[in-house]
Amino acid sequence: MRAPIAAIPALITALSGGFARAECARELEVQGASVSYATRLFQGRPTRRDATITVELRSTSTTALSAVELGIFLGASLQAMDQTRASALPTQQPRVFPDGGLAFRARVDVVVPPGATRVVEVVREALPLDQDLYGVRAMVVGCARTVAVNSEVQLAVAAEADDPPGWLLAAAVLLTLAAAVVVLRRAQ
Predict the structure, then answer these.
(1) Number of C-alpha atoms within 13 angstroms, CB side, residue 2?
(2) Among candidates 59, 28, 21, which has minimal Cα distance to 158?
(3) What is the signed CA dihedral for 61, 11, 163, 169, rounded to 10 degrees?
(4) Which residue among 8, 80, 103, 187 is least enclosed by CB atoms within 10 Å?
(5) For 50-144, where are the alpha helices, taking DSSP H only?
(6) CA atoms 132, 134, 140, 145: torsion sign
(7) Dihedral sign, Cα of residue 129, residue 134, residue 137, residue 138
């Protein structure tokens, strides 16, 4: 009967919609990033290239984090990276830079306790076949925090300039309470 309770933080994350951006850049450090490619073949010809990006993250936060949003740059020059805001990167199709590099944003659900180091993987499918994109750089765009309340862990998302509407947060709270009532009734 733990499954519905475990899904509540993900539900609140989805309904609240925002990530803490500025604080995470200071409290979560990228220790290193690497990329490996797998080329899919059909009748002996390459059809697509898939990339697996491995990123090592170290938390200096005082609270646990439940999700991380990363900006990934593949084969992009330092100038292209400096001129691009990682939070504005697309999530579906990678942005192609004039220098031949690619960039995209990816969200990874991972629990990172305070002071811990975690290795996360991001898989991106169908990258261009004609480019060698071996230089990889990852930046922390945002994260979601967890907060202990009455020995229950709940998700807390820091307020941003564009806060979600109040009715959306009220709906999230009502859904959480409804899920808790269902779990308690089934437990009896």
Answers:
(1) 2
(2) 21
(3) -120
(4) 187
(5) 78-82
(6) positive
(7) positive
**What is the rounded average pLDDT of the residues 57-63?**
87
Distances (CA, A) of 57 to 23, 67, 182: 15, 12, 37
pLDDT at 155: 56
Residue 165: what pLDDT?
A: 61
Rounded Cα distance between 68 and 53, Å, is: 14
* Mean pLDDT for the stretch of residues 104-112: 89
Summarize the confidence of residues 39-51 as an average pLDDT. Answer: 79
Phi, psi of 31 (to 5 degrees): -85, -30
Q: Which two tokens stand for residue 131?
A: 């480019």
The β-bridge partners of 54 are 34, 121
Which tokens hold the place of 77?
């020059």
- pLDDT tens-digit profile of 138-158? 999 888 877 656 555 555 554
Residue 31 pLDDT? 93
Cα–Cα distance for residue pair 35/29, rounded to 1 Å: 18
Q: Report the distance separating Cα 80 and Cα 136, nearest Å.
A: 13
Nearest to 143 by CA among 88, 87, 78: 87
State the CB neighbour count (10 A cutoff) for residue 19.
22
Structure-token pair, residue 119: 């290795």
Task: List the end-to-end C-alpha distance of the chain, in Å, as a whole number.
Answer: 11
Max alpha carbon distance in the chain (Å)? 63
